[in-house]
Amino acid sequence: MPVPVHSIDLNADVGEGFGVWPPLADADLFPLISSASIACGFHAGDPTLMRETAMLASRRGVVVGAHPGYPDLPGFGRRELGASAAEIRDYVTYQVGAMMACALAAGTRVRYVKPHGALYNRAVRDPAIAKAIADGVRAADSGLALLGLAGSALLDAAAETGLRPIAEAFLDRGYRKDGSLVPRDQPGALIDDAAIAAARAVRLVTEREVETTDGSIIEVAAESLCVHGDDARAVIVLRAVRKSLASAGIAVAPFLR
């Protein structure tokens, strides 16, 4: 049976430029989202962009999150580097600490952490890596929430480490029957049809389910819905999502008040 839900968080990965290469459309994204996962300099971002993006979030009343990834600017953090658990723990603490300082300089603060790319995907299935990420977050600030794929090892590790786990679902990515995301190099990985993404958003909130690429229906209970900010169609998708949610009587509000 559908569970009555009157609001849902919309998050996007932002600040994913570097130096003279600005992000695609962050200024247009902020009026449409309630939480912003800001790149911390390893896969994208730099100190100035981190501070400026946090300031933009603050002005819009958007909750700030840190978005740490592998140290892989050329690969945008989407290549599996095979780093050890100890290395990953320190990568996360370093990046979250840097983002906390930049947020403070912008007059706001980091409230949650969401890993990026290959690091995120590795933590979905690998409990040791999930624990390393949670330990890295806790070392930076034990009061932070940890955002991860619904049903993943990362959320289990967050709870075990004493962090608040926040389950998210994706509006612009294909799902497999086991609840994991379709790898980006496989058919059905990306959803760029705004109408499909908008309908999925309403279904996730009202029915707690999503259709997989093979037509199966799986249960997905999420507190936050994500659209990737580095996609050229992100603004179009988010506008359609906001319109459909409003028509269904669902408000957009951050998961952290």
The CATH superfamily is identified as Glycoside hydrolase/deacetylase
Number of domains: 1
Instruction: Describe the global form.
Output: globular
The CATH class, by name, is: Alpha Beta
List unreliable stretches of 5+ residues: none
CATH fold field value: TIM Barrel
User: Helices and strands, in N-to-C order?
Assistant: EHEHEHEHHEHEHEEEHE
Describe the fold and architecture.
- This protein has 257 residues and is α/β, with parallel strands linked by helices.
- It has a single domain (7-252), classed as Alpha-Beta Barrel (TIM Barrel), CATH 3.20.20.370.
- It has 8 helices and 10 strands.
- Helix 2 packs across helix 3 (85-105) and helix 4 crosses helix 5 (127-140).
- The two termini are 28 Å apart.
- The mean pLDDT is 95.
What topology emerges from the helices and strands here?
Layout lengths: L6 E8 L11 H4 L5 E5 L7 H14 L2 E5 L17 H21 L4 E4 L3 H9 L1 H14 L4 E5 L3 H9 L2 E7 L23 H14 L1 E3 L5 E3 L4 E4 L6 H14 L3 E2 L5
Parallel strand pairs: 1-2, 1-9, 1-10, 2-3, 3-4, 4-5, 5-6, 6-9
Antiparallel strand pairs: 7-8
